Amino acid sequence: MAIRERMSGNEAMAVAMKQINPDVVAAFPITPSTEVPQYFSQFVADGVVDTEFVAVESEHSAMSACVGAQAAGGRAMTATSANGLALMWEVLYIAACSRLPIVLACVNRTLSGPLNIHNDHSDSMGARDSGWIQLYAENNQEAYDNLLMANRIGEHPDVMLPVMVCQDGFITSHKIENIELLEDDKVKAFVGEYNPKYKLLDKNNPISVGPLDLQAHCFEHKRQQAQAMMNAKKVILEVSEEFYKLTGRKYGLFEEYKTDDADVVAVILNSTAGTAKYVVDQYRAQGKKVGLIKPRVFRPFPVDEIAAALSRFKAVAVMDKADSFNAAGGPLFTEITSAMFAKGVFGPKVINYIYGLGGRDVKCSDIEVVYDKLLDIACTGKVDSVYNYLGVRE
Amino acid sequence: MSSKKELKTIAPDVKWQDITEGGVMPYAGNAELFKTGDWRSMRPVWLQEKCKQCLLCYPVCPDTSILIDESGKRTDFDFDHCKGCGVCVKVCPFKAIDFVEEGK
């Protein structure tokens, strides 16, 4: 029987880490993810985990310690946000290219500047090409569930890549909601042991990690890394299916909400998808055919599946809680439109909204603006503005 | 070096499907396969008649390029790997190692 609890998104992530009981956690506090290592260090102090907690002097060191621990043959985890993630930057790439399945709890916060501690997705979106698998979560339950699945996904022999589990800073990280936890023994059985092919602490089979890799071999390693990310999609689905059998909670590459007969959909990551579901319900009650697509897996990007899913609609609004400053839309928008173009999906009209930057509150009335615009486009077939900002004073 | 035949996984013509994951070097001693001798611009010359076999040169060589035979005596340089740094020339108390420009 699952355990009914209530806790914040941060506590949910810390509890998942406690149940995973990794060999090493190396972390440096940064708002709004501070509570994750804070709760976890309490578990260490209480002796309820066997983990070596390394209180490092920076996030660069946190990720470096994780790289060393994981290369040694252990399971390493960390948590961070915003500028902490940015300070990990070069080591994120090294973790991925060294094929070390470290797990990182990313509590999304806007990347300075201007200096701001509140939520948007500019931190993890900036790391989208670092080679990490990225999973996104609407609430504390999904953050907990994604974290429980992260080791299994990253450590699969066909993958061997680090995994970043993202949730919205403050909005879900600090909000206390109901949650269903798994029992410790069930988590232990599900997550299993980590048995990498190569490990530095295997004294009978000495290895070197992270060698100089020049023109002769570097490209082959990059190609191999790309393949691992392609393989990850199937593994994510397999692990999610197994998790579904264990918990009854179903996860795919993205969630579709009331899309069956929808004319228009919004595509939204993380907590704002929850707000949009409420608006969808209101509009449905008025007979308006609106729906929602909430991506869970951003890396690997589900090109085929998302293009196929979106091909059914008349109009689509892709919502980005991060700007690319490319003068041509946010990261989710460019990925989705690129996927649609590559797969020959030219039917739907697609527009972009950049919203909620720096923690700007996203209200139902904001989401209503989006659906009203989409319904208008579906009716007239005309798009007057592709790139839009939502909720900014102008 | 029983693993030498397995070292083909990092050979120059290896395909991405066969190369070790993440560039891990899974066997010790494979630096021998990387010939660094052609980096050399200065070449040490062992003057056997002056050499007292004190072996002070051996531990300072950064590339293990001073070869020792079964009887524990030094022989000529391993020019496949000697980079011509000249440290052995400096430490030799008997001027038993000459140092000349490569190609002369």
Tags for this model:
heterodimer, A: alpha/beta, seven-stranded mixed beta sheet, six-stranded mixed beta sheet, 41% helix, globular, B: 104 residues, Alpha-Beta Plaits, two-stranded antiparallel sheet, 2 helices, disordered N terminus
Written description of the protein model:
- The complex is a heterodimer of chains A (394) and B (104).
- Chain A has 394 residues and is of the alpha/beta class.
- Chain A folds into two domains: 3-247, Rossmann fold (3-Layer(aba) Sandwich); 254-390, Rossmann fold (3-Layer(aba) Sandwich), CATH 3.40.50.
- Helix content of chain A is 41%, strand content 19%.
- Chain A has helices spanning 9-20, 35-45, 59-72, 82-87, 89-97, 122-126, 140-154, 184-191, 218-247, 272-285, 303-310, 331-342, 364-380, and strands at residues 3-7, 24-27, 52-55, 76-80, 103-108, 133-136, 163-168, 177-181, 254-257, 264-267, 290-295, 297-299, 315-320, 349-355, 387-390.
- In chain A, helix 1 (9-20) runs parallel beside helix 7 (140-154), helix 7 packs across helix 9 (218-247) and helix 11 crosses helix 12 (331-342).
- The radius of gyration of chain A is 21 Å and the shape is globular.
- Chain A starts with a strand and ends with a strand.
- By secondary structure, chain B is mainly beta.
- Chain B has two helices and four strands.
- A two-stranded antiparallel ribbon of chain B has the order 1-4.
- In chain B, strand 2 (66-68) and strand 3 (74-77) form a beta hairpin.
- The radius of gyration of chain B is 17 Å and the shape is elongated.
- Chain A binds chain B through residues 97-100, 160, 197-198, 205-211, 213, 216-217, 219-221, 223-225, 227, and chain B through 10, 12, 14-17, 19-28.
